[in-house]
Design goal:
By secondary structure, this protein is mainly β. The protein contains no helices and 9 strands. Keywords: Kelch repeat.
């Protein structure tokens, strides 16, 4: 998960039966959650996520229930009228190797 302003994004994961491709936004102030319309390009859990320069959400690696992943997804963060929106960036990023549970360091 990552924090953007007063929101926390829960990205992908495992619901006890299936690996997920959803992004859920939880607002720390209103205590309300919603499933965002944007989906991950691949279902994944055990990935790493980071927010860069308060402008980009980066999601890399993980596990899709069959194999470790080496892809990198990037979304542009758009805040308009108190509403958080994500727009997919056309980035074809790859990790040097597929990674299940890669580590991330907040900067």
């Amino acid at each position: 998960m990552v924090r953007i302003g007063s929101s926390v994004l829960l990205i992908g994961g495992f619901d006890g039966c299936f690996v997920l491709d959803s992004i859920i936004k939880y607002d720390l102030e209103t205590k309300k959650s919603e499933i965002l319309p944007q989906k991950l390009s691949e279902k994944r859990e055990n990935h790493v996520s980071a927010v860069l320069s308060d402008r980009f959400l980066v999601i890399a690696g993980g596990w899709n229930s069959r194999i470790s992943l080496d892809d990198v997804e990037v979304f542009k963060i758009q805040n308009s009228d108190e509403k958080l929106e994500l727009a997919r960036c056309q980035v074809n990023g790859k990790l040097l190797m597929a990674r299940n549970r890669p580590a991330g360091v907040p900067i």
